[in-house]
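Following up on my earlier message about uridine-5'-diphosphate-glucose. Here are the inputs again, as you asked, copied directly from the submission form:
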Amino acid sequence: MVVKNVCCIGAGYVGGPTCSVIAWKCPDIQVHVVDKSEMRIKQWNSDKLPIYEPDLEDVVRECRGRNLFFTNNIEAAIKAADLIFISVNTPTKTYGIGKGRAADLKHIEMCARTIAEVSEGNKIVVEKSTVPVRAAESITHILSANTKPGVSFQILSNPEFLAEGTAIDNLLNPDRVLIGGEESEAGAAAVAELTWIYNHWVPPERIITTSTWSSELSKLASNAFLAQRVSSINAISALCEATGADVTQVASAVGKDSRIGSKFLTASVGFGGSCFQKDLLNLVYIAECLNLPEVAMYWQQVTDMNVYQRTRFAKRIVECLFNTVADKSLAVFGFAFKKNTGDTRESPAKYVCSHLLEEGARLNIYDPKVEKIQIEHDLTCPTLTNEPERVKKLIEIFDDPYEAVRDAHAIVVLTEWDEFKKFDYKRMHEVMKKPAFVFDGRKILDHKALIKLGFHTETIGKRFTRNSLLRSSGEHFPAFAWTP
Ligand SMILES: NC(=O)c1ccc[n+]([C@@H]2O[C@H](COP(=O)([O-])OP(=O)(O)OC[C@H]3O[C@@H](n4cnc5c(N)ncnc54)[C@H](O)[C@@H]3O)[C@@H](O)[C@H]2O)c1
Ligand SMILES: O=c1ccn([C@@H]2O[C@H](COP(=O)(O)OP(=O)(O)O[C@H]3O[C@H](CO)[C@@H](O)[C@H](O)[C@H]3O)[C@@H](O)[C@H]2O)c(=O)[nH]1
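Thanks, got it. Here's what our run produced:
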């Protein structure tokens, strides 16, 4: 078989960009991206795509209608396909056994059942979603229990490693493409088919093949290692703030060791995004179920440190603002979980804002890409507050950052958008309440310049105040005792 027709179930942050790149690089393949959400498909077929990713629009514009199609006709697309990617969401379970930790695989199971029901010929089914190790076994079980005569399936694991904000670049130049398959002749043939697709643009040495279980576990392990690096440097940032060391200098010195490397060592207000926490919790759950409590505890600490980091930052803001933010306006710059995306899933900004709202602060929020309705929805959702009406009255969303800072006591930077570095902070300082503070949760601003303008500044992993040792020792912060 040579794959001529590909279907991708799930037109989200992974399915959309991944299949757009496949269609772009493989003009000899017809690609149908399907979703149960009519709204999502409508947006993919419009000028305003449902997700923001640099360069995505150009790729979609070039292929849509040529060999790339977005449709709700799931059954027809599955029927016509030789190879089917499953790219549906696998969020943390919010109910039942494993609630709050295990991955919810109901969407994966639904896909497997639909594929079994409508397929008429041989298909390769590819797990692209991130799943617990041995999930392919359950998919195989469902498919084989429902197989009709003349139909056969091969299941592959092909986890996706793209990061949001750089998805197109990551897809075009992946560090590696990982394909896991059954160790049999039919398994090897299916792996070869998928490899052939990637061979259109990925050098052969970057395409790695493993067993299915190794592939599934490698995805969870990769995210766990990445998240662990962020939590490790964030733990060091707390030590820096307590001792007078500077986490940027420490990270640079540590990262120069070629065995450690310099990437993913930027201390921050905490990691966010739909993947790290979910996949870590999933790993913890798997370890617990396998009776490996020490392993579970080890990885649990990575997410605990992340919660500690964002809470610590929020507390520091309150502390520096003379221990009260009640009725004070604070300008919040950034709500997305990282720059170059409009995605707010698990964004640390939500948690920091929620903490400040609990303390009675009024928040003037500005983000260049997150929709107003999304910010309102996130901050009023039941997992964050049981007082949505009160929260609504305390938040205002701005299109203009210069309006957001008017009469504010502080600027709080929660996403590392490049544009924040270019703002006219002199102009901002003029219209703010004095003393005016900047709390830089992403370490992106020029603090020396801000101090010259009259701001009092605080950032992650570095104290600009003389009272750092006193405050970090847990003693009460004496009002009016800061010195830039
Ligand atoms: N977001 C990322 O950067 C990223 C990167 C690598 C891997 N992943 C993994 O990829 C998977 C998808 O993530 P995402 O961020 O694209 O999720 P998403 O929520 O953006 O998209 C999933 C889509 O699947 C659709 N869907 C769910 N069940 C369906 C069904 N039965 N039939 C048709 N459509 C269905 C939903 O409507 C939704 O549009 C997850 O397992 C995630 O962990 C995500
Ligand atoms: O040095 C760093 C690097 C990242 N972050 C934060 O960590 C989070 C995650 O960032 P990143 O990994 O760049 O984005 P994601 O889109 O979540 O991508 C991760 O999760 C995806 C989903 O599984 C994987 O495919 C990617 O390989 C993996 O990087 C964001 O809040 C970042 O701000 C830091 O605080 N410091």
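One observation from looking it over: The chain has two domains: 5-202, 305-472. Hope that helps, and feel free to reply on this thread.
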